[in-house]
Specification:
Blueprint (H helix, E strand, L loop, with lengths): L4 H17 L5 H7 L6 H13 L3 E2 L8 E2 L1 H48 L15 E10 L2 E8 L3 E8 L6 H15 L9 H11 L3 H4 L1
Antiparallel strand pairs: 1-2, 3-4, 4-5
Helix pairs in contact: 1-3, 2-3, 5-6
Length: 211
């Protein structure tokens, strides 16, 4: 039996309500927690299907239902997928924003030159003396990671880095901790070769990413 969108919403409502109350959940309660506008009878039928599929069960006769391990697993997987989509959207937005800014600056320089008949130059803010506030490495795909650097004044720089092998979440977390521990609060011109050498040594086989 296929788990359609309606069943997924009812399962999510069962799990959320059970987590809030710790009590078995009945069909009348679910009818108040969903936007499906279904009758209690229809919800009972759907819950019976969910029970048959192993996502919820009845702890004792005449009680409501509670989620099974299988139900929890589906719920957590759905949450992780949603978070992953949010991360991907943020990455795309950051890359797109940088590209748009560069295009806008070029267009501005071109318009100024055409209207004034003078050579025009636009320079970006100088960041060498600005202090680093935060560094975040995130996975884009198996062969790429996105490095986002936030500088004092909330200036955001980002760059796509190529990697030879896919990095798991634990490795990325360790690299983020390493970079932020050493570099947070420093200006770019305060970062020297000796400091980079120490970070590369601690990064081990991932020293190329530090470079």
């Amino acid at each position: 039996m296929e788990l359609d969108e309606r069943k997924k919403k009812i399962l999510q409502a069962v799990i959320r309500n059970y987590l809030e109350t710790g009590e078995p959940v009945g069909s009348r309660t679910i009818s108040k927690y969903t936007d499906l506008n279904l009758s209690s009878a229809t919800i009972r039928n759907e819950m019976a299907d969910l029970e048959e599929m192993g996502y919820i069960f009845q702890p004792h006769t005449s009680a409501g239902r509670i989620p099974s391990d299988k139900g929890y697993r589906l719920y957590v997987d759905a949450m992780m997928e949603e978070k992953e989509r949010e991360v991907v959207e943020m990455r795309d937005m950051l890359v797109e924003r940088q590209d748009k800014m560069e295009t806008l600056l070029k267009q501005m320089a071109r318009v100024l030159a055409q209207n004034t008949q003078y050579a025009t130059m636009i320079s970006a803010p100088q960041t060498k003396r600005s202090k680093l506030k935060f560094i975040q490495l995130s996975r884009v795909d198996a062969g790429q990671i996105l490095a986002v650097i936030v500088i004092q004044g909330n200036v955001i720089k980002n760059n796509i880095l190529s990697v030879e092998e896919e990095l798991d979440d634990e490795t990325l977390l360790k690299l983020n901790i390493l970079l932020n521990t050493y570099l947070n609060g420093l200006s770019i011109d305060e970062i020297n070769l000796a400091m980079i050498a120490v970070m590369k040594q601690q990064a081990g086989i991932h020293s190329a990413i530090v470079s």
